[in-house]
Amino acid sequence: MNDELILQHGLTLDEFQVIKDYLQRDLTIEELGIFSAMWNEHCCYKTSKKWLKKLPTNNEIVIQGPGENAGIIDVKDNDGIAFKIESHNHPSYIEPFNGSATGVGGILRDIFTMGARPIATLDSIRFGNISSDKTNYLLNGVVQGIGHYGNCIGIPNIGGECEFDQSYDYNNLVNAMAIGHVKNDSIFYSKPKTIGGLIVYIGSKTGKDGIHGASMASDVFSEDDEDEKRPSVQVGDPFMEKLLMEGCLELMSSGLIESMQDMGAAGITSSSVEMASKGNVGVNINLDKVPLRQPLTPYEILLSESQERMLAVINKDDNEKIKKILKKWQIDYEVIGEVTNTKRVVFTSKEKIVVDLPVDIIVDDAPEYDREFSLPKKRKNRNFNKTSLSVDKMISNYMNNLNYLDKSWVYSQYDSTVMGETIKEPGQSSGVVKIQNTDKAIGATTDCNPLYIRINPERGMIYTVLEAYRNLIASNIKPMAITNNLNFASPLDPNIMGEIVLSISGLSHIAKKLDTPIVSGNVSLYNQTNDRPINPTPVIGMVGCNLNWKKLIQNKFISEDDELILLGNSLGVNFSPYYLQDQKIVSSTCEYNELLPPDIDLEIKTAKFIQETANKDLIQSSNDISRGGVFMSLMKMTYKNLGFSIMLDDDDIFCEYSAGYILAVHQKNKDEIINLLNKEQINFLSIGQVKRDTFEINSKKLNYSDMIEKYYKNFANIIN
Amino acid sequence: MRFKILIRLKNQILEPQGKVIEQSLKSLGFEEFTNIRQGKLIEIDLPDTLNEKERLKKIDAACKKLLVNEIIEEYEVLG
Amino acid sequence: MSFKSAVITFPGSNCDRDALSYLRDLTYGEVFNIWHEEISLPKVDLVILPGGFSFGDYLRSGAMASKSNIINEVINHANGGRYLLGICNGFQILTETGLLKGALIQNKSIKFLGKDCYIKKKFNNKFNCNIQNNEVLQIPVAHNEGNFYCDQDTLNYLQDEELIAFEYCNGEYSLDDANINGSLHNIAGITNENRNILGMMPHPERAYQDFHASKDGKKIIESILS
Is A509 a catalytic residue? Predict the structure, then answer.
């Protein structure tokens, strides 16, 4: 076992020495493979663990926090919502279609492995500059891949985000989020309970897919690497997963499963090791029993990431019943081992032991690092002159920028209404589905403001979470909990490690203030190519609930003459980073001013106001203010022939806002709303009305159909 | 023995993928490629014990029954 | 007199649950869910072949489902004059069995299409009799292969016998073309000669509840029950 082999397996020589010292012997090649997978960043969080421990992960609504396949929150009456977000960044750069499709497959398995039926997905995808052919190729591949998998398995996509920025030129991001519904007394965990229980393999046969995928997830690319990495990408079969999902849910609801774990990154290795670790037991598995697609060595079987496979523990008396159910769903099934009390992970092949390791050294004793990090430099105060830009020019900048245009080109490739319970489809401020046979509405959104986080990671993260919060509030969904996907470049760079540490700190702070614990998540590091790191991109998936779907509010204009009321405080031109970037006033990150401190108390107060007035049916529709300011909020609210006429200080039309919302209020409720706002001492401005076929800002009229055509059609025009 | 069944959309039916492939090839410098249509290949093994007539009969039957939709597709047996 | 109905589930059907709710909520009669391997169907008034990706849409959409055990019984049910409704993948299955003419091929855009579309009644039948002429319905579509094709003779036949049930049309304020997927003559749904079998690409079972974007899908069941 030479140094090169060890390094090729993604372990440092020091890490290898720790293992060797513990075991007091040489490792087999299969054992080296196991550590290569399990001690990898993706599986053991060695860089981020120390910091993630600081996150708030519990309160009275949390049934399951981080540590299982998904987090679960209680939405009353024995209903639980399981959810998680995960990344598939590196595979989707190498092979966008399959890389992103299998990302969706993986996250759905994480949900149904807990006994929850998936009810919605969201996707957060980021690409480089659209002028490059490569970006176009990736965009098409990723969207088709996500659509292919989600549509076939029949889970509606209800929202997400799609951003273009040159920092993702060589490292596009694909974060897939899934939400499921479970009955709280029927949740399944991965922890086996019975010594002597049978370990069974359920699902697709194993092939060479993705060998070393978990270590690829944490490898930095060099530009020439692509072709060599290509065979590693897993290919998914959503039809197989649909059968697998139905089969597993049927087994679980029939009481035939003791515990279940999906085989994701590092396949059979990670699933069996994690089961052993959670249950404080050992596992004995015969690799000869694993169903194979083609001949594989024990090493390959252990590391294969073939899709659509689950590992379960069952009582031997249930074997026949299980076989019958799985036969109906055409799913392969094999007993491959048993649960022991040795607390060791043992794999055999051809009657030889190829792996015999104590569980502890693989999981609990996995490395945890305290990497050096540096704090961002202090910023100078600058004043930005923008008076040379006319309103027309500023609008035109947005209408030619993919980040501001309607994204139906993306989401019309997804099925958003399958399962018949979708209340808000993509294009609204948050996605919403109803829980079948109840009145409960579950809302979700994904958000990130990488530019803010680059300027000030701690504050920027707070702003990001607040935007997710506002997206839910604008629909009258009560925000409840968070799942997060931390996408960063190499933590070996102290600046980037600083971004990681500080954004986790910011997340912790705001999650405590909002009482929205983090119940699940994922970390993806080393997103950089040839010294070009991505922007810090910690994506937040936020989920909430309204027990009565009838109290939800719309995010688009409903009727002419509704009064438009603006809430919140403009950050002003000097302190609105996206405005400065996208109006091309600033070109380098060091030129931005420090972010203004977020006004968390105002955000909470305003949110409470909106929820209370919406519950009293006083609000017609609402949208939050984010990138693009009041202008973009209003643009997003246009619907059919309903536009607007407003008067607002030129300076404030495009700036970002703190606690910013537009409320559309029926004239008959206007006085009451204004009284209540005054009573709560919430600043507001009545800026105008909803008006048919009108697009008027400060008495300047733009052609309504023209603007609508640009906003809704330019995305497709620019891409093609 | 291994057989290949080529299945393609009938000529009069619009085959949109072929046109896109043609565009892409042109943009890569393959200007002389025209009239591209994409079809399907199904490969099967049949026992050697069958004679040629029996084999073709079985393949035709399988095509008519399931593998080919004769409203929109036509097929050709190779090997 | 209660109205009985059934929804067939194939491996990969994913709109069966939706179709079951649609029937349970709107017909107040007994609703059966039948697995594709069954060899008998209970006596019902309406059978729905639901949407989804039966058999993964492998080989051709609906091809393998059309050879399932249960299909013989479905054919008997239809031959007995009772109602048969194929939605999306169900429509594809009906054309593959030959119960309906023509075929559904890939969308002209080569992309999956998931959005609201607008249809109106073309010729009258028991599935759309409660819909006014020129009334525009808004119903979601979600398909890769929704492009209706048939040869000229078949098209003439469908027109002469008045078997075209629905056509895609323009929606008020919609920015998109009426014909969303390249279908011949904007055909969105057709019946058989006896007009007791309807195949349609849009999903009425996604447009009937109070929280759905539109409730126009109700009109199909209401027509059948009237």
Answer: no
Is the ipTM above a cut-off of 0.85? yes
Q: Which tokens hold the place of C97?
A: 């069995």
Whether residue B7 lies within 8 A of chain C, CB to CB, comes out as no
Question: CA–CA separation, A71 vs A66, rounded Å?
Answer: 6
Tokens of A37: 């997978």
How far apart are the CA of B30 and the nearest CA of chain C, in angstroms? 23
Architecture of domain A553-720: Alpha-Beta Complex (3.90)
CB A579 within 8 A of CB A629: yes
Which tokens go with A445?
């959104």
Q: Which domains does chain C have, with CATH numbers?
A: 5-225 (3.40.50.880)
Our CA dihedral for A152, A154, A157, A158, rounded to 10 degrees, sits at 160
CA angle (A609 as vertex; A608, A611 as ends), nearest 5: 65
DSSP string, A697-715: ETTEEE-HHHHHHHHHHHH
* Residue pLDDT, tens place only, A16-52: 999 999 999 999 999 999 999 999 888 889 999 999 9
DSSP-based helix, strand, coil % in chain B, nearest 5: 35, 25, 40
Domains parsed from chain B with CATH numbers: 2-78 (3.30.1280.10)
3-state secondary structure of A486: strand
Min distance A164 CA to chain C CA atoms (Å) = 22
Residue A631 corresponds to which tokens in the numbers above?
């202008």
pTM more than 0.90: yes
The dihedral region occupied by A28, where left means phi > 0, alpha psi between -120 and 50, and beta the remainder, is beta
Which tokens is C194 given? 């006896």
Residue of B nearest to C66 (CA): B66
Query: Can you say whether the dihedral through the CA atoms of A571, A574, A576, A579 is positive or negative?
Result: positive
Helices (H), A339-386: 359-362
Q: What tens digit of pLDDT does each residue of A553-594 get?
A: 999 999 999 999 999 999 999 999 999 999 999 989 999 999
